[in-house]
Amino acid sequence: MPQPVRLGYPAAAAVFAIGMAGTTLPTPLYGLYREELGFSELMVTVVFAVYAVGVITVLLTAGDYSDRAGRRPVLLLALLLSAASALCFLFEGGLPLLFAGRLLSGFAAGLFSGGATAAVLDLAPPEARARAGFAATAANMGGLGCGPLLAGLLAEYAPRPLALPFLTHLALLALAALLLLGLPETVENREHRPRPRPQGMIVPPAARAVFVPAALAGFAGFSLLGLFTAVAPSFLAETLGVRNLAVAGAVVFSVFLASTAGQLLSPRLGVRRALPRGCFVLVLGLALIAASLLAESLPLLILGAVTGGTGQGLAFRAAVTSVGTAAPAAQRGATVSAFFVVAYTGISLPVVGVGALTRWLGLRPAGVLFTAIVALLAVLVGLRLRRTPAPEAA
Prior knowledge:
Pfam families: MFS_1 (PF07690)
Strand content: under 5%
Membrane topology: Multi-pass membrane protein
Keywords: Cell membrane, Membrane, Transmembrane, Transmembrane helix, Transport
Subcellular location: Cell membrane
Protein name: MFS transporter
């Protein structure tokens, strides 16, 4: 009797990408919510930051859950949380459901980050491990970029701009669930209904000298991603006069596309060169973004997005590799999880600061000040890494 066809790692990567797309779907729509509900730019950044709270909570309490419960149950739970988030946005009647939707989205992203990455790598044959690693990276960043692009196009050129993007994502989640049913379970000795095991942040003494600059580089890079996914549409509308939501979604998409390209280039340079160079390319991108705000230039903003995203991708992949290499094998997973906690703090707290500064300085000065502070951090980290290079991967 012929065996049923089982899908491989590309299908797992597709599930990963669909799930991550939902986490950035509201990005071009925040301006519409502001008009409908009448809240401030600060509240936009707070609503966005709730997502990072959800991700960090999962990383600290259930980072290894898919290793114990199995990949498919965890990914199914993540898909259900994504669907619940979309329903919160569909039926929103004020800030409470927006907050709930973002929190559920963060929980889903936290589960996808570990479970889907592991599933993609588990399903790859030995000769395709390198391709699978890039597939997981591309699914993560590509999915994050496709969310704003899809929402912007639908909101600008289709009816019901605050409903159709989430209805479309619900349909995509149903497709992802069908793909998931075709994936084999790769965890053999699963626990029955394991309880989460809070781990906190674990950084072994042997890895701390490498962890600190790598984590700060991750913080700076994710701050750039947070800026674009939280307030870039407001910058476009209020500073540059660009109110086309499809353009806003495309600009955010360009950052994540460039990040994926940077991560693809990183291994060719090696960790020692990619990490400091990524920091300096990130600085150049931030300078271009600041210049675009001062000159009110959309082309400069796009150039800054692509340059900064490339630098973020270069530094990010090299930072994860260096942290994983420096950590003892028994504590490698926990150390990498601690790195992601710092990175996701970078995607949330700085943009809330931008929202707060906007109330006193205005959007353009707040954006320029933000880019200057993050650029200074990236410069200091890059100089430190040039003096003390990170270890190459074993």
